[in-house]
Each structure stands twice: as structure tokens, then as C-alpha cells.
TrEMBL record:
This is RNA polymerase sigma-70 factor (ECF subfamily). Keywords: Sigma factor, Transcription, Transcription regulation. Pfam families: DUF6596 (PF20239), Sigma70_r2 (PF04542), Sigma70_r4_2 (PF08281). Residues 109-160 form the RNA polymerase sigma factor 70 region 4 type domain.
Amino acid sequence: MSDVKEAVTRAHQDEWARVVASLTRRFGDLDIAEEAAAEAFATAVERWPVDGVPPNPGAWLTTTAVRKAIDRIRRENKRDDKHKEAQMVYDNTPPEPLGVIDDDRLRLIFTCCHPALAMEARVALTLRMLGGLTMPEIARAFLVRETTLEQRITRAKAKIKAARIPYRVPAAEDLPARVSGVLAVLYLVFNEGYLATGPDTDPVRHDLTTEAIRLTRLIRALLPDDGEVTGLLALMLLTEARRTARVSVSGELVTLDEQDRGAWDKALIAEGHQLVRERLVAAAAGVAPGRYQILAAINAVHTSARDIRDTDWSQVVALYDQLVHLDSSPIVALNRAIAVAELDGPEVALAAVDRLEDELAGYHAYHATRADLLRRLGQSQQSRAAYDKAIELAGNTAQTANLTRRRDQLR
């Protein structure tokens, strides 16, 4: 029985996106695809313990889901006389393939992450339609009520239908811009798991980081030559490798300089480094790296050092200098200043950080960085005030615990 349960769980992880995408292509309706796929998995839970796990679970689930969808359409056709949907059942003419890659899952990704939808809707749709997460799981992850989430997804589906957002991979000339939107959604999901923003949730959400990595792996399998997809996957892997060392037994965030590097996941680091090396080869051939590739390279430098004192800070600053040309946001400038502190000293870094006050006054990490630099300069009173402000703005219990301890260590 446990083997069957594991088979269902594994099939859900491996096949959910494929089944939903296949049904979306056939019936042209996200609601039908989602509900029929859910019914097919529910049937598997009932039938597989009795009949055994089929030799090809994905094919079994797809066939079952198609039958469920047809049954639903026939029922609605009898009740509402929906001739158009009924015609879909019997029209076996495949849709005209559009775009540079013909894959149902990739079509679905671009539909869920279409720029006409609000970012919150893109995230929710992606996790539901491609990740197979339940409404309660997604609502919990992003600290919204389940009814709110359901309304958000319903409105997004309605907009897709009303605006006739195409279920297709964008044309070759539009693909880079659209891929960047997809990656932004997945990076947002990963970051929420990496350091959850809510005070009443686990500080690190392994379920979200795992799902973001899984979906990014899927996109890389579909777009293996896209450097930014590879860069984002490498960035996620190198960050995830440090997960078990990032929160102490007492629930306090452990910063990079204090982490037990022996607890890092060596397999994830090795894989992440390999992906970074792949992109370095491309860069040597004249292919300019993008934002995620540079961030991955920065993380590769950090995870290559056996001790914080062995970090090549000059290389980290040089990489941030590259990143500033692509992303001149104050967050990037703040992170660069943290590296500058290790290379040129806290006084130089503090001057750079203070120039960001107008843009980052409401960001806890700005005040935490100032507090640390002021502490290193021996300005305890000002450091304490900065820590107080960082604690006030921090939305994560593990962050708050770390900041409080550092503040209380001041003389």
C-alpha cells in the first residue's frame, strides 16, 4: 500500500503539469483541464491500490483525465447546449503549432505567466496549473485567505478567456522578453520560500524552494540553450544548498559569515558550479551574461570558499560591478556595498549605503546593513538605533531573532 501511495505522489510530481497542459491544448479551457486532471488523480488514488500501478502512469492519467473532461462537457452540453465545447471533443485536428518550440507544458507556462496578468495571479496560476499545489497550500504560502486566492485564480482564468490570451509559445523574436517574465515568477516563488516574509510562517519554506527549482528544471529541459534559465537554476541550487545551515536550532537566522559550511549540500553546490562553468564558457565565446547568471556566479564564489575569510571579495565586487550595468536597483547597490566593506573597509561601504537612504528607508536589510557597519566602526549608539529600525521592519521571526541578538551584543 505504501508503494502505491508513493507511486501516486511521484506521478503527481512528474505528470501533473503534462496532464494539465495536454488537456488545455485539447479543450482550450483551463478550468476543464484543471478539474479533469484532479479527478484523474483522485481516481488513481481509488483504483491503483486495487488494480495495481499501471506500466505508464502518465498515459493512464492523461487518458482518464480526457474521459473525465469529455463526460463533463457532455453533461454541460445537455444542460446548456454548448455546441462549441461539444465540437472540441470530436475535433481531432491538432492545433496549428505556433512558436519556436512545440511543447504543451511550455505553452501552459507562457499562458500562466502572460504579462497581461497581475504578478500575484501569475504566481498563483503557475503554482496551481503547473505545480499542482492545492488552493490551501498556495494560500498558506503567500499568507492570503483561501477565498481570496480562489477569486484571484478565477479572475485570471476569466481574463485569459476574455482577452483571448493565446495558448502558445511566443514567436522567436518575442521569446527572450517573455522568458524573463516567466523566470521572474519562479524567482519570486523561490525567494518567498528562501526567506518567508510573513511573521506567522516558517522562516524557510522548503516546499516553495523545491517547487521553484523543479519548475525551473522543467523550463531548462525545454529551453536548454537559454543562458538566463541556466543561470537562475544555478542560483537557486547554490542558495538551496545552504538551507539547512541558515536557521539555528533555536529558530534564529544564521548569516553567511556564521554558517557551518560543512552542513551545506555538496551535491547541489557541485551541480550549481557546473552550470556556472557552462555559462562562463559561453561568456568566453562572447555571449554576455544576464542578471541571473551574474548572481549565480557571485554565489559560486561564496560557495567555493572553505571559510568566510577565504572569500575572493575582489571577484565578488567585480561581478557586482557587472550586475550594476544590467540592474541599477538600490538593492543591488546595497549588496555591492556589503562586499565593498570586506574589500575596502566599513567606512567606505557606509558612505555608499547612506546614499541609498531615500530609496531604501522602508527596507529592513538597509538598516541591518547600516547597523553592522556602524558596529564595526565602533559607533554603538547609532548601531543600536539602526538595529531597532531593522527589527521593526523585519517580517520574519528568524530575522528578528538574529537582529535582536546582534543588537543586544552591543556594549
